[in-house]
């Protein structure tokens, strides 16, 4: 199911990994055994390395490292500030250590 939903089809566009994981979680105990799904999710990146993301702070960045302990809270390399200016020196934000930050969208580079 994960592969089918993250792949473009003639009848629909592919979904992003975090959208598929959320969708599959909504089917827990209906279509998926919770223990099996939990095991699967531990091995799937919600936001794969290289994914361009928009943070709630208005900053934009790239996922630079997957966080296996908190798969929906990766490490982000911020490259554009909240005013839309490119940063000459990027900053790393570990979302698992900064609860005030969260990913609100994906953006195309």
List keywords for this structure.
five-stranded antiparallel sheet; alpha+beta; 109 residues; 5 strands
Quick description:
With 109 residues, the protein is of the alpha+beta class. It has helices at residues 2-5, 17-26, 34-41; strands at residues 52-55, 60-65, 75-80, 86-94, 103-106.
Mean pLDDT score, rounded? Answer: 91
How much β-strand is present in the residues? 25-35%
Overall number of domains = 2
Gyration radius, rounded: 15 Å
Report how far apart the termini are: 28 Å
Instruction: Indicate the overall shape.
Output: globular
User: What does the main sheet amount to?
Assistant: 5 strands, antiparallel
Biggest sheet, spatial arrangement of strands = 4-3-2-1-5
- Structural class, by secondary structure, is alpha+beta
Order of helices and strands: HHHEEEEE
Share in helix: 10-25%
Number of helices: 3
Number of strands: 5
Low-pLDDT runs: none
Q: Overview of this structure, please?
A:
The protein is α+β, with helices and mostly antiparallel strands and 109 residues long. The protein has two domains: 40 residues, no CATH class; 55 residues, no CATH class. The protein is 20% helix and 27% strand. The chain has a five-stranded antiparallel β-sheet with strand order 4-3-2-1-5, with no helix packed on it. A hairpin with a 5-residue loop joins strand 3 and strand 4. The longest helix has 10 residues. The chain is globular, with a radius of gyration of 15 Å. It starts with a helix and ends with a strand.
């Amino acid at each position: 199911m994960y592969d089918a939903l993250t792949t473009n089809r003639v009848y629909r566009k592919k979904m992003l990994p975090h959208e598929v994981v959320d969708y599959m979680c909504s089917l827990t105990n209906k279509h998926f055994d919770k223990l099996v799904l939990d095991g699967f999710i531990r091995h799937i990146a919600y936001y794969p390395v290289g994914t361009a993301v928009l943070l709630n702070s208005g900053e934009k960045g790239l996922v630079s490292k997957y966080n296996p302990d908190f798969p929906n809270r990766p490490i982000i390399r911020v490259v554009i500030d909240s005013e839309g200016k490119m940063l000459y020196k990027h900053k790393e934000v570990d979302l698992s250590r900064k609860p005030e930050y969260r990913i609100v969208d994906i953006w195309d580079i």
